Amino acid sequence: MVLSLGVVMAGVAIFVIFVMPRGNNEQAIKVVATAQPMAAFARQSPFTPVLPVGLPADVWKPTSLRVQLPVSSSSSSQTAQASIGYVIDRSGHRTFARLRETNAPDAVQTLLGDRPSSGTVDVNGESWQARPDHHGHVAITHTQGGVTIVLDDGDGKGGGATQADLITLARALRPVEPAT
Questions:
Q1: How far is Cα 53 from Cα 51, in angstroms, rounded to an integer?
Q2: For the whole prediction, is pTM greater than 0.85?
Q3: Which residues pair with 90 in a beta bridge?
């Protein structure tokens, strides 16, 4: 009986040593393509959308993309919107950021609710409005030519981007060329 127990324990030990998965407990991040879908969006959108260029791909990982185009070109509502979610994947610490852009006339109120500006931040020589909320979430906004860009921490409970992260994202934004 002791011999049988020893054989079973040896089998378990071999399994644990050679077969059992190892590594950290972090889940893999599923990255989504943004360049081609946003180029297609740019072709049909009533405004020129933006995307970040030059951010380190091993840190800034786009994980979601949603677009909304006007229902039809003859429609009275020509509102379009694009939203891209990012995981900022730093060693041992992941945070979230979100880029939203729209030509809706009440974009800041619609996207952020009642978040008055608490000041401005400089992004490439332009003033962006800082809009923190009373829960500690941060956002910065910029409106130009009827288009509003909102960068925020995603409102998640898992830890959001800092204002410095949002400024980094804002500095990297460039116009998207429409797909042909």
A1: 6
A2: no
A3: 93
Do 65 and 55 meet the contact criterion of CB atoms below 8 Å apart?
no
Question: Positive or negative CA dihedral for 24, 136, 129, 114?
Answer: positive
- Helix or strand (DSSP H, E) at 166: helix 163-171
pLDDT, tens only, 68-121: 998 766 555 789 999 999 999 888 888 999 999 999 999 999 999 888 899 999
**Is-contact 86 94, C-beta < 8 A?**
no
| Pairing label, strands 60-68, 81-90 | antiparallel
The C-alpha atoms of residue 150 and residue 143 are separated, in whole angstroms, by 9
Nearest to 140 by CA among 170, 110, 113: 170
Could you give the CA distance from residue 122 to residue 79 in angstroms, rounded to a whole number? 28
| Cβ contact 88:161 at 8 Å | yes
Unique residue bearing structure tokens 């360049």:
35
Nearest to 84 by CA among 129, 137, 45, 33: 33
CA angle 123, 159, 85 (to 5 degrees): 60
For the chain, the straight-line distance linking the first and the last C-alpha, in angstroms and rounded, comes to 76
| pLDDT above 80 for 26 | no
The tens digit of pLDDT for each residue in 48-83 reads: 999 999 999 999 999 999 999 987 665 557 899 999
